[in-house]
From TrEMBL:
InterPro entries: Acyl_CoA_acyltransferase
Top-level lineage group: Bacteria
Organism whose genome encodes this protein: Azospirillum formosense
Name of this chain's protein: GNAT family N-acetyltransferase
SUPFAM superfamilies per UniProt: Acyl-CoA N-acyltransferases (Nat)
Length: 392
């Protein structure tokens, strides 16, 4: 009986897998119609320029084509699963990996065997799959499927204008008093960091696009982080210079005596209608983080930002963040940016090593996390996203 049941189950699974296909350009029109129905009209998922950038121009693209799979039932598209291919540096080796992206099924076809074969198509494409900025429902599904829970990216906030931050926040009573007292202390931390930066002789330079110094920074800094997605020149140029909304990002390089030490990528955001500056991505050796942050704080102050915000998983840096006066926001505030991983048999990873948060450097520049936070395209020509809104 068990053998028969197993055979029947495998037969059903095989039939369901045959309804999933890698995207073909002949399906473009129908797929855009499906996406508009599921996501809306003015979002990046339905924009041709974004799709070309994200799936056709991405470095390390699959030889079989873009990581876009569709499920067809009764001759029409009823679901999709996408992936963003990348390489993860795991200590001294690189693992081909993929960020799970935009798994959607038409409501009338849910609970009818479309989700699983779509998800498995992406899992089968690379030894390692990862997901970031996961919804509650997806988190539950991934947990049941045996994904590794890496946890949420902590949010660090430096209130450059404590009065406006407190007025915009939900802090009450004693917390407001503490916040008022903290203002001078935070200002002192900022000034102290700036003086330290000047003493080192480091130079902070804004650049229009990434150049060859990015590779030097990667070689210098990456050995300090056991688990980190590849951030070489090719990746950074694609991620920040080639993206259709490239003008939303500001790029800075930290150098000393002409030697590249680190970089930071900034973007304007709003938090409860207050103008803020967000660190989308950064990389440097841990010993240079204080200097990199002090220069970034100076830029934020010049921009008259209410606060500087950084969502990142980097336990090596937490002491520096807190020492500089940045406040760690609890995960329960706002929408937690969760991260999970699924390792296939060829990944050759140790689950405990992946589950150890101390091994990771993750930022909002990884996967599709930052895309989801500026999802609406403006009505004007050019299709460049408006300023993003931080949830919380």
């Amino acid at each position: 009986m068990s053998t028969s049941s197993s055979t029947v189950g495998q037969s059903i699974t095989d039939r369901l897998k045959k309804t999933v296909f890698r995207f073909d350009t002949s399906d473009t029109g129908e797929l855009r119609g499906f996406q508009r129905k599921m996501f809306g009209e003015r979002v990046w998922q339905v924009d041709d320029a974004y799709n070309r950038w994200l799936f056709d121009e991405v470095p390390d693209r699959d030889a079989d084509g873009p990581q876009v799979w569709v499920c067809k039932r009764q001759g029409r598209i009823v679901g999709q699963q996408c992936g963003i291919p990348f390489r993860l540096k795991a200590r001294d080796r690189e693992i081909p990996a993929s960020w799970a992206n935009s798994l959607m099924v038409l409501p009338e076809w849910r609970m009818r065997g479309a989700f699983t074969p779509l998800a498995e198509a992406q899992l089968d494409s690379r030894p390692l799959a990862m997901a970031i900025h996961i919804s509650d429902s997806a988190y539950k599904a991934y947990s049941k499927a045996g994904w590794i829970d890496i946890g949420a990216l902590p949010a660090y906030v430096f209130p450059l204008d404590t009065r406006r931050c407190l007025e915009a926040s939900s802090l009450q009573g004693r917390m407001r008093t503490i916040g008022a007292i903290a203002g001078p202390a935070l200002h002192g931390a900022r000034i102290g960091g700036h003086l330290l930066s000047r003493a080192t002789g480091a130079r902070f330079e804004e650049i229009g696009r990434f150049d060859g110094r990015a590779d030097a920074i990667w070689r210098r800094a990456s050995p300090h982080y056991p688990l980190i997605a590849l951030r070489d020149l090719t990746h950074l140029r694609w991620r920040y210079d080639a993206i259709p909304c490239a003008s939303d990002y500001r790029r800075f390089i930290l150098t000393r005596g002409g030697e590249p030490l680190g970089y930071v990528v900034l973007r304007r955001e709003t938090w409860r209608k207050e103008p803020c500056l967000a660190i989308v991505d950064y990389l440097c050796e841990p010993k240079w983080l204080w200097v990199l942050l002090s220069h970034t704080l100076r830029i934020a102050a010049t921009e008259r930002a209410t606060a500087l915000i950084c969502r990142t998983l980097n336990t090596r840096a937490e002491r520096t963040f807190l020492a500089m006066g940045m406040m760690k926001v609890p995960d329960r505030v706002g929408f937690p940016v969760r991260v999970m991983a699924h390792a296939g048999p060829d990944a050759g990873i140790d689950r405990d090593e992946f589950a150890d948060r101390g091994n990771w450097l993750l930022t909002m520049g990884d996967g599709d996390a930052s895309f989801l936070m500026h999802n609406t395209l403006p009505e004007t020509a050019g299709l460049q996203p408006e300023g993003v809104a931080v949830q919380g």
